[in-house]
Amino acid sequence: MEISPRLDGVDGTFNTDTGQLKCVPYPKYAEVLLCFAERANIPFARIKLHSEDRYQTALAVLPDAVQLGDEITKRWNEYPALRERERRCPTMQEGESRALLRGLQECARLLGLGYEASPAEVVDALREALTHQVEKK
User: What percentage of residues in the chain have a pLDDT greater than 90?
Assistant: First the structure.
């Protein structure tokens, strides 16, 4: 789906099927923004986990707001990969493909790759790491 934001200084569209989100923390303002990452970070949502408009209160919950923003962006960004896996293997249930993707992402994290690494990159890195361990023994 194409979204056309009407913001000052912003023109163009954002494709929700292929576009990525970013979580942008602003410690100076004690807030977290969710942004479309299309040629620039275009903010569309603000995460606020406090009811008082005091800086100290906002700063106390900022780490939790950042974690929530990271989780939202991670799930948004992994959704196209889930749909593609389910399209390739229609007998696989959503929970199974989500579990496989989480396992691949955890392997990627442990190997120092980003969670956006492709399955082939993860397998290659695993193969290389295991080869080095076997050679050491």
Answer: 9
